[in-house]
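Q: Joint fold for the lines below.
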Amino acid sequence: MKLKKTALVAAAVAGLLTSGYAAAASEQFIGLPSYRVGPFGSNGASLYGGWIDYMAMINERDGGINGVKLSWEECETEYNNARGVECYERLKGKGATGNTVFQPLSTGITYSVLEKVAQDKIPMVTIGYGRTDAADGRVFPWVFPMISTYWTQASAIINYIGSKEGGVDKLKGKKIGLLYHDSAYGKESHAILDKLASKHGFTVEKIAVASPGNEQQAQWLQIRQAKPDYVILWGWGVMNATALRTAQKTGYPREKVIGVWWSGSEEDTVPAGDAAKGYTAAGFNVAGANYPVVQDIQKHVYGKSKGNMEDKGRVGSVLYNRGVVHGIITVEAIRKAQEKYGKGKALTGEQVRWGFENLDIDDKRLAALGAAGFMPDLKITCADHEGAGKVKFQQWDGAKWTVVSDWISGDQTVVRPMIEESAAAYAKEKGITPRDCSKEM
Amino acid sequence: MLYREAGQFKASYIEDQQIFPIRQDKIGFIAILAFFSLVVPMIASEYWLQAILIPVLIFSLAAIGLNILTGYAGQLSLGSAAFMAVGAFGAYNFMLRIDGMPFIAALILGGLCAALVGIAFGLPSLRIKGFYLAVATLAAQFFIVWALVKFPWFSNNSTSGVISAQKVEILGFAFDTPVSKYLLTLAVVAVFALLAKNLVRTTTGRSWMAVRDMDVAAEVIGIRPMRAKLSAFAVSSFYCGVAGALYAYTYLGTVEPEGFSLDLSFRILFMIIIGGVASIMGSFLGAAFIVLLPIFLNVAMHALFAGTMPAGLASNLELIIFGGLIIFFLIVEPHGLARLWQIGKEKLRLWPFPH
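A: Joint structure:
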């Protein structure tokens, strides 16, 4: 029968693969559930390319982390939940100590393995996506939605708009449009913006765009009628470029359009052409290839023709640099965990989880990494798995992104209680007793 | 030689009407079932159980559901994933809102919810046919996913419409290990597959096939097309719904409405096309093919070209080979893998002395 035959052949192949890895003892294995085909394939190629290049650079320049070389294997998920679960299961036992960390770069896959990671003791890091309330580390010890959650981002965007108007108190009576991708991802914005609206006294005009969003004439006519002072673009993929083009067509100034970080990459602005000029977007990392960390990658990895990117022109793009941020955080967490569990040793996922939870990348460390201004400083604690909660705003000048703000924080007095409330509801539904963080070390 | 029915006489109608009239088939079926329920749990690793066997079984069940509607009753549907979503969210809500709800009952109630929704979206089938009906079921696909995100009640006010399945417990036994989840899935799928196999041999099943082959003629001989079509929609959606509930409870644990996208509907459709339209066994073969082949290609690519080929190229090559193989199988055998098996069986009957 087909099934059994395939099973036997696949088992043989799998056997070959695992035997190859068993030999390398002091290597830290990192499984990469990447996607290079499918609707988001080009995004995945940049993100995972940057991440792989950074790890290759650590191996080339420093000889690994305290002598422990990083090794990795990709598994194609096609941004598909079922394939993501298969990759998770396939990668988790690989390497001498198993998979160190799982970072699927897909909210759907994040949800699909949310409970498995706790059972298998593998930390899951979701930087800028995933389950927002997992920022409450007491309920979600194994999940790290780092740097900034969607809610913090929404709050930071409001703060940024406030700063342009001369203070958040000036937002009273203003109208802010929200053009969102009609999906779970887009709806993440609603609760927080409603709360902020009632706090600061502005109104939110929510306008949905059905996926994929390549036709938005009606929505922008609606925006023209409502005349909002600003429009927050909460989009993904083809929807972003279409929004900018339609904004131009209907005569809405792009300077007043503020994108979220999944709407603010070269992949969104370049296809929009000159319609994107003046458009501003949030980001937890910035674009540019002239940061020392990217320069080091150019020198040690591309200099030896070992780079992962097929299109070298994309090195230094927003998404590529986001991949580098993933690399930095992963490597720093392993380094931190080695301080506790023994330098120069390959660590298990459980040990690396401790590294993530005690991660402290301050400005001094960022400068040493060659990433000052590249990403925000980050301090994770047992209770707070988000860390930074800051974003920077970049404006597209028609050819490249230029940074137009400093790091702007979200309003944690609003966001944090919402996170805790949501996490508590989850804990209650699941019968989880939240950890007591004063007992953790 | 081995597969010969000479000497097997049927002395009564009941013997003649068995699901497996040939003794070898019966033995083979029992052996396969025994292998998967007794041997596999002992030898299979966690990876095989959780990442391969459970999804293959669940998709087989969904494919049986679609096969009942499309293969047996001839009504093309693109909404299978949405009916799966109804089943998953239905079971979740029954478990959530009714204290002490037994899991199996929730599973069946979830399936019944899907059946009701299926009947509602099956109503247009009384007037429209073929591609137009496919478009009507497409509406179901979009509407259901939209509704599940739009109304927070379905997901118990989760901000993003995501539900996370409760613990599965039957008579005090917790199904929390991969082996137990696999066995639970296998049991449910085996029971429902047997039911389906029987159902298509009953009056109902025969009326579906009559409507499929020529609905006017079917009406003339006294089959009520409305009852036949709507019952096909109901049973099909019920199967998809149960598969969806299993998908949430024994496979993923946490599901979001977007996971049940049109893409998944198409994959289930491909499963029955590749496996064999109007064949229960084809549903299993098709599901195994569509689920296993991409994984196998991915593993094989890594084994063969690790480090020598850019990852993007390897991923695209997998898709190209996958598509190529689908076309190859459709050219070699347009009636699907089940038909290949049937031809093999005919050959086996004569082996080793063909005419």
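Q: Anything notable?
A: Residues 13-24 of chain A have pLDDT under 50 and may be disordered. Chain A touches chain B through 58 residues (CB under 8 Å).
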